[in-house]
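ESCALATION

Customer reports they have been waiting on this structure for their group meeting. Please prioritize. Original submission:
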Amino acid sequence: MTDFYSALNREPQDDEQLRGCVLRTADKLLGIAPDDDRPGMLLGKIQSGKTRAFIGVIAQAFSSGFDIAVVFTKPTRSLSTQTEKRLKRDFEGMIERDEVLIFDIMQPQGRLTPSELRRKIIVIAKKQTHNLDRVLRLFSEDYPELRSRRVLIVDDEADLASIRFVGTGDEVEQGKIAGKLDDLRRLVGRLSYLQVTATPYSLYLQPERYQGTGEFVFKPMRPSFTELLPVHDGYVGGDDFFLPPDPTDPRARIFVEVDAREQDALRKRDGRRVSAGEELRSKNTRALVRSVCTFALGACVRRWQQDRAGLRPEKYAMVVHNDTMKKAQRWQHELVGRVAAALVGSAVGDGAAFREHFEAAFGDLQASVQADGGAMPPREDMASAVAVALRDETKILKVNSDSDVVALLDDRGELELRTPCNIFVGGNILDRGITIPRLIAFYYGRNPKTTQADTALQHSRMYGARDRRDVAVTRFYTSRPIYDRLFRINALENTLRQAFESGAHDRGVVFISTGQQGGIRPCAPDKILLSEVVALGPGRPFYCPTGFDLRGAAAARAADAEIASLIPPDAVDKRKLVAVDAAVALRIIAAAERAIDAPRQEFDWDAMRAVVDYYGGGGGRVLVAAATGRRLTVAGSGDKFGRSIVGTDLRRLLEEPGRNLPALVLLRQDLPQEAGGWRYPFWWPVIAVPTDAEPCVFAQKVAAG
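Update from on-call: job pushed to the front of the queue and completed.
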């Protein structure tokens, strides 16, 4: 029998970690009992090589006795085309030897011959009603003999459409796509099901079984096992974009804040907001101009570095993803073109406006490149190179329909970069699954009223396999509220992955919501708004208000005195933790809340109380430590990780192993001598989860109903 996995057309070959993941996944699928119809899960990070991995699983499954694989993709022609190209490239030799047959279910093949039916068959189908109907017909009517074969379903982006349940009164109604997938699972006798995703929340946060109308029971989608896709050395993801502040880190300058009013100005053509000829001066295009100029400079810097190292200069990409509406995208496409043209016009004219933007971009990138240990080219050489790049070597493409993307895919199924600088302006088409190589600039403005964590993460096209030297010239342009939301979602992703890595998911990742009258309660998966969560655990042990102001003088002074009276004297400046009743800790938190005016989108007091309730055993004990003489400025209060706020000595105390109670740290903030301080002294609360705590997610808000 052919060793299909070893015969894959891959350059380079899979490393040992990926190979082990593929073999384990295939073995587990083979070992699932025929009467156990729960799926397995292959869990990876966004743009981390999931397609390569599941193709390997298909090949190994073929070697182990599977005959047919049905690959379900996101319901867009671009992604199904991308998947088909990848499969045909990897199985190229086996296709030529008539060992494997690959086709899209919606592309007529004519009547398959007996010899074709004897091959290993891979069917590609979009998660769309007509596609699912054709797959069902393939097994039920066209070739019923295939129903006795061993079949593997590979559900790519498994959280999208595959599981969907709609409440109708007291009943639960299954979505159409999920229902048809169930029909296929009932139709085929020997079937294994593999879910592939980077956002498993909807799949894990569900009952073992759904009871439907009457005697009907929906087939389970909750995974029977999870295999973690290893993260390769070249992966750039959330930990690079949302990291603790460190000015010596070349990634520290990746985030560039955009005024929300600018993002709104890009949603609709309005000459009063952006007038013709004012693109380089308007306050409503400031970040967009910076992004275009810095992107061109970043590409020129990297190409100069590559040429200097004797390497072939690469081509680079930028994405503008601000809206879903095509009308808005047309305006953005035009405006980006006008910005590029205005920069070129200024460079060949008086040069003042171009020089201003170029100097800002050069200083910005120089700091990151030097922090990364890289060489920066001569300033004047780069000024000329950027002007030439924007004039002759920049392609600005509007991508807002499937046909656009299919035409732009290269033979690897990735967006083709045709010039040294490529700017893609688009909406939903540029999210899930589409691979954009060498993406170093991302202007992002999607800002719905409620954000699902899985959807928001899938917009992150800046994640993926990258040359680590590209990171120094990479920039992410978005508003502060959007960045903060993505920061929280990244913390959630890391918390859940830690649970999977440690095996805690077998005991259940804790999802709870804060109650109206305090206290905590379990939260059903369909009730959680995943943009409104606090994720805590070993990877993020501290939670505290950041970026806040103080309320009035009377409130601040009263709270200051009350907290001081509640702190045990032997807990102050002794670098030790003293146990108190949880009720005392809750009174301290309530007093701090009366003094500190923390934005709701930044911090949730109920979540802090929930940490005390949950980890303190519901009315148990809490450890307290206090330190005085702190003098942080308002500007220094924004560390969302809480590490620099707590300080080195207390952090070491809190991180000592074996602490099994939550700890409440109180930091007495004195008035700093320098400008930028608060108006009154106050106690700053920080909660720390136990050092051996299982990951826990607190829902700040739940959906109505």
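Sent to customer with the following note: Residues 163-174, 206-221, 505-531, 700-705 have pLDDT under 50 and may be disordered.
Escalation resolved.
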